[in-house]
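We close this part of the discussion by returning to an individual protein. The encoding preserves chain order, so positions in sequence and tokens coincide. The sequence in question and its structure tokens are set out directly beneath this paragraph:

===
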Amino acid sequence: MIHIVDYGLGNLGSIQNMLSRLGVESLIAEDPAMLQDAQKIILPGVGTFDVGMNNLERLGWREVLDKKVQAEGAKILGICLGMQLMTKRSEEGTLPGLGWISAITKKFTFEATSSYKVPHMGWNIVQVAKESRILEQTNDEKRFYFVHSYYVELENKKETLGTTNFGGSFCSAFEVGNIIGVQFHPEKSHKFGMQLLRNFADN
């Protein structure tokens, strides 16, 4: 069973539909108490950093997630904004993040004459930085769908799971123990995303 956190932001239905196609049982957790027995959690997110953190605090998710992830070791997958919320802070807002990862979330900045336009949107390649079961069997060329204006900068580069090029290389996935974050959207990434979610469910 995978619990999907409903804190008011994210493509919950799309994630659950893809898990259903894989034959993986999932539950959209609408209340923090529903995470009591959770062993695998997905923290999705589409929106802004401060709204996300405010919702987690206001709706009572923060304390429960800290307990499940940090004290009990539940495996968690953060997607897009969900990945960014795991960092210490973001240039997008003023509120502190969950702080599970020694990292900050930074904004893409390019010269006005640059051919790179923000947000970074569309399909792009993820280069694997270290071995991990989460990216196993997603084919040699790992293509995922991105929509974001901010990216995660890790203090410890050894925690990088995957990198992507967009006007330079940035961390598009990290893995630290039971905590996994991906900047792309597996639920929009067809066979590549399906395999990643399968790996998360099976490992």
About this structure: The mean pLDDT is 95.
